[in-house]
UniProtKB/TrEMBL annotation, chain A:
PANTHER family: CYTOCHROME BO(3) UBIQUINOL OXIDASE SUBUNIT 2, CYTOCHROME C OXIDASE, SUBUNIT II. Belongs to the cytochrome c oxidase subunit 2 family. It comes from Bradyrhizobium zhengyangense. Residues 255-277 are annotated as: Disordered. Its main location: membrane. The keyword Glycosyltransferase does not apply. This is Ubiquinol oxidase subunit 2. Residues 1-92 form the Cytochrome oxidase subunit II transmembrane region profile domain. SUPFAM superfamilies: Cupredoxins, Cytochrome c oxidase subunit II-like, transmembrane region.
Automatic annotation (TrEMBL), chain B:
The keyword Heme applies. The lineage of its organism: Bacteria, Pseudomonadati, Pseudomonadota, Alphaproteobacteria, Hyphomicrobiales. It comes from Bradyrhizobium zhengyangense. Residues 39-558 form the Cytochrome oxidase subunit I profile domain. GO terms for biological process: aerobic respiration; electron transport coupled proton transport; respiratory electron transport chain. GO terms for molecular function: cytochrome bo3 ubiquinol oxidase activity; cytochrome-c oxidase activity; heme binding; metal ion binding; oxidoreductase activity, acting on diphenols and related substances as donors, oxygen as acceptor. Its main location: membrane. This is Cytochrome o ubiquinol oxidase subunit I. One of its GO terms (cellular component) is plasma membrane.
């Protein structure tokens, strides 16, 4: 999951900007740290060779330089930030070979559901994608906020109930990667890590066909079972019944996932008709 | 009768909080019994609890912060140990407990350690530096402190009665809404912050007014010590930002208590609204904390270099620039929410712009040292340690202000390392520097240098051993708040970080040892001159500890570094030998208003958390009645006769003359 070992163009661009920014700043920071230590050491009270200049308390030239150094650094980095923000906007297209794959990701309590509307399949906690193709993600949440993040593919993005965020990525090399949720979402949060299988574009149709034969069907009913709070250790796959399922979730036609089942009296919500649902 | 409260609220099945709570309870009881048996109760009540003396209140703030630092630090140790062992296992803390710990750690460290520490130092020092006798609203000051303490009390109560929030320290909805957090944890969180937030707001109003309205003769704005400037900036931010926090939490509470839909998933609630509002407070909050620390370092670097602060006006400008810009950058906390490239880029650049005045400050401290005669007493060690550490924190901060870099680092352990880098390296180092520097002023004796230096080195090294591994873990994709994980590459770094935590803890132990040793040797460490560091600003012009009225005469200020100029003048002209004519001094009378008010606020807060409505009404009426009684007061001042002022001041002047003549002889 090393950020400096990118497996796609977005991650590569992100980490290039990351590394470049660090080096731009190090050019200023290292000499400054050195100067702090050097001045502190040389002007120590016991050093009789250091010249005591108690009246050196203002110098227009020094002031100009000390305002200019950070200002110039920031102008340079500001340019990096401006250009980078536009080029690497999560919604910006990431051209690839072959036709793009649409994936609709839903963060559930506490698992990831990946819906492939065009292939009419869905998977939980495993994301299988063809190498080299553009991946168009639409993301939402069944309940609380989460952040979808595959470190080696780059750019994370929030998932929120009733809203759809967009992200385009591409995976260049076949292999196994890992993804996670990067926003705390409750007790099962650490178990929201998921596998990312990047397979060859030739093998992808076979995988789709194999998955489409799955016995389990994802429809509104099975989705409602899936969104109950809990951890999923397995890697279930589904045939997708209704390709509009994601829209039903994102538009709240399927209401948000329920919270915890209440165990103790201390945790019982008070009476008073608070829960409008 | 008791709302939601019953025996199931006490976690009998969880040994850790129960034992921790038990130990604290026994300790508090032991102290109380000791106080009563030894007959100190009356002293405590009259001299401290009801005191409206800004110095006493400052000391109590710092004491509260120190105690809470131990609590927040224990949470930190538990988290580091958990992450060191929870590789492919559940560790020793179940998620519902671990989640409370990191939420409590953040809440406590920001609201009940960092805030009271810096507010305590400002309270203690600013009126002295301004050459005045008290803050603008002495009784309000006491109310502010006791309300802050009430918030701390409620947070600690959650350890043994009920639970604390399991949502992280900012309680983001919808997780913090009733459907997903039905327990009392979020209510504990929200009500303790509401109550202490009022305390912070009145402290802010008080200090702003003090700086703007109560300066001694000749102390115009551009002669104020740097710490007064940063106090002004920081408290302006408090006054502007804390109402946002109060309003935001009020909306969350309306959602939770009365079925409103500000931030719920359904019925048009908007979670992004909460994100924006909480960070519109949360980002200025960072500068509320770090600006006073900058002020402390300005004082320390200048004093121990034996020079006036380099580029004073530039520093003032930088301070006020930070104060203003800090309100325009909040969105950088959620670049990854998909706001779009223009918005992200603008907020990213605005965030970087703050680095300019901050960088200027670093360089001005650097040039203050240049040509100086630097004495490496403990406060100066903290200052140099700060400069080095803070630059690194600044670097990583500007890095996460670059949106594409933040797309990789948001919420990661890298981010955790970054904000600890600036909060520990900036605020905490500053608080410790200020503590060492002004302790002799508050108590009349110096702190032991040997233990102070040990504390510095262990804390300094411990900080790096703990947080450099977290930077690395972040670069390895590790996100924050993981109760357990299965990624082998993260493990070694978590183990190193836990070792670093142990080193940091030794630093804290050294700090405690320093206090113990210094109190034991206080006669040897006694500061009779009131000016132990060869200081430059007015707080050193009075005795240590200062008399209740601070100054027998309002000092006449003729330039920056007011006290330094006086010392020079005294040496040259052997002044101060004329016998001054003393006058009666009026000082504010002690008042139990703050304590009583907070007592009722505590009852009300507890009752609100547990839905004990009759008790809410009782607490509310009590607090309001206290306010009414105070508002109807007739005499709120008493007179210190001129003869008494003269007796106190002559002793001080005598010591000071000896010092000046000795310095003159050299």
């Amino acid at each position: 999951m090393n950020l400096l070992d990118p497996q796609g163009p977005v991650a590569a661009a992100n980490s290039t900007i990351l590394v470049d920014s660090v080096f731009i700043m190090l050019a200023i920071v290292v000499p400054t740290i050195f100067a702090i230590l050097a001045f502190a050491f040389w002007f120590r009270a016991s050093n009789t060779k250091a010249r005591f200049q108690p009246d050196f308390v203002y110098s227009g030239r020094v002031e100009m330089v000390v305002w200019a150094i950070p200002a110039l650094t920031v102008i340079l980095l500001g340019g990096v930030a401006w250009i980078g923000s536009h080029q690497l906007d999560p919604r910006a297209p990431v051209p690839g070979t072959g036709s793009p794959v649409r994936i609709q990701a839903v963060s559930l309590d506490w698992k990831w559901l990946f819906i492939y509307p065009d292939q009419r399949i869905a998977t939980v906690n495993t994301l299988t994608v063809p190498a080299g193709a553009e991946l168009n993600f639409q993301l939402t949440s069944s309940s609380v906020m989460n952040v979808f993040f595959i470190p080696q593919l780059g750019s994370m993005i929030y998932t929120m109930n009733g809203m759809v965020t967009r992200l385009n990525l591409r995976a260049d090399n076949e292999g196994k990667l890992q993804g996670l949720s990067a926003h705390f979402s409750g007790d099962g949060f650490p178990d929201m890590m998921f596998d990312v299988n990047v397979i060859s574009p030739l093998a992808f149709p076979d995988w789709v066909a194999g998955t489409a034969k799955s016995d389990a069907v994802l429809n509104e009913d099975s989705y409602k079972k899936l969104m109950q709070q809990g951890i999923e250790k397995g890697r279930p796959t589904y045939r997708l019944d209704d390709p509009r399922l994601f829209d039903l979730i994102a538009t709240q036609h399927i209401p948000p996932g329920p919270g915890p089942e209440l165990l103790s009296d201390a945790g019982r919500p008070h009476s008073g008709g608070v829960d409008a649902r | 009768m008791l709302g939601k409260l019953d025996w199931s609220a006490i976690p009998f099945d969880q040994p850790i909080p129960l034992i921790a709570g038990g130990v604290v309870l026994v300790a508090i009881l032991a102290v109380l019994i000791w106080v009563v048996v030894k007959g100190h109760l009356s002293y405590l009540w009259h001299e401290w609890i009801t005191s409206v003396d800004h110095k006493r209140i400052g000391v109590m703030y710092i004491l509260l912060a120190s105690v809470m630092l131990l609590r927040g630090g224990s949470d930190a140790i538990m988290m580091r140990v958990q992450q060191a062992i929870a590789y492919q296992s559940q560790g020793y803390l179940p998620p519902e407990h671990y989640n409370q710990i990191f939420s409590a750690h953040g809440t406590i460290m920001i609201f009940f350690v960092a805030m009271p520490f810096v507010i305590g130092l400002m309270n203690l020092v600013v009126p002295l530096q301004l050459g005045v006798r008290d803050v603008a609203f002495p009784t309000l000051n006491s109310v502010g402190f006791w309300l802050t303490a009430t918030g701390a009390l409620l947070v600690n109560l959650s350890l043994v009665i009920g639970e604390f929030a399991r949502t992280g320290w900012l309680a983001f909805p919808p997780l913090s809404e009733l459907s997903y957090s039905p327990g009392v944890g979020v209510d504990y969180y929200a009500w303790s912050l509401q109550i202490s937030g009022v305390g912070t707001l009145v402290a802010g109003i008080n200090l702003v007014t003090t700086v703007l309205k109560l300066r001694t003769k000749g102390m115009n704005y551009l002669r104020m010590p740097m710490f007064c400037w940063t106090t002004l900036a920081s408290n302006l931010l408090i006054v502007a930002a804390f109402p946002i926090l109060t309003a935001t939490l009020a909306m969350l509470l309306l959602d939770r208590y009365l079925g409103f839909h500000f931030f719920t998933n359904e019925a048009g609630g908007n979670v992004m609204m909460f994100m924006n509002l909480i960070w519109a407070w949360g980002h200025p909050e960072v500068y509320i904390l770090v600006l006073p620390a900058f002020g402390i370092f300005s004082e320390v670097v200048s004093t121990f270099s034996g020079k006036a602060l380099f580029g004073y006006r530039s520093m003032v400008l930088a301070t006020m620039a930070i104060c203003v810009i800090s309100f325009m950058v909040w969105l950088h906390h959620f670049f990854t929410m998909g706001a779009g490239p223009d918005v992200n880029a603008i907020f990213g650049i605005a965030s970087m712009i703050i680095a300019v005045p901050t960088g200027v400050k670093i360089y001005n401290w650097l040039f203050t040292m240049y040509g100086g005669r630097i004495r490496f007493a403990t406060p100066m060690l903290w200052a140099v340690g700060f400069m080095v550490t803070f630059i690194i924190g600044g670097l990583t901060g500007v890095l996460v202000a670059v949106p594409p870099a933040d797309f990789m680092l948001h919420n990661s352990m890298f981010l955790v390392a970054h904000f600890h880098n600036v909060i520990i390296g900036g605020v905490l180092f500053g608080a410790f520097a200020g503590f060492e520097y002004w302790f002799p002023k508050a108590f009349g004796f110096r702190l032991d240098e040997r233990w102070g230096k040990r504390a510095f080195w262990f804390t300094f090294l411990g900080f790096y051993i703990t947080f450099v591994p977290l930077y690395v873990a972040g670069m390895l994709g590790m996100t924050r708040r993981l109760q357990h994980y299965d990624v082998a590459a993260w493990r070694p770094w978590m183990i190193v970080a836990a070792i670093g935590m142990a080193v940091l803890s030794i630093g804290v132990i050294c700090q405690i040892m320093q206090l113990v040793v210094s109190i034991r040797n206080r006669e040897a460490l006694r500061d009779r001159t009131g000016d132990p560091w060869d200081g430059r600003s007015l707080e050193w012009a009075t005795s240590s500890p200062p008399p209740v009225f601070n100054f027998a005469f309002h000092p006449d200020v003729r330039g920056e570094d007011a006290y330094w100029d006086m010392k020079i003048a005294a040496q040259q002209q052997s002044l101060e030998h004329e016998v001054p004519e003393y006058h009666d001094i009026e000082m504010p009378r002690n008042s139990p208003t703050g304590f009583v008010c907070a007592f009722f606020a505590a009852i009300m807060g507890f009752a609100l958390i547990w839905h004990i409505w009759w008790m809410v009404i009782l607490g509310g009426i009590g607090a309001f009645a206290t306010f009414v009684v105070f508002a109807w007061r007739d005499h709120d001042e008493y007179v210190i006769p001129a003869a008494e002022v003269a007796a106190i001041d002559r002793a001080n002047l005598e010591e000071r003359r000896n010092l000046v003549s000795m310095a003159g002889a050299i």
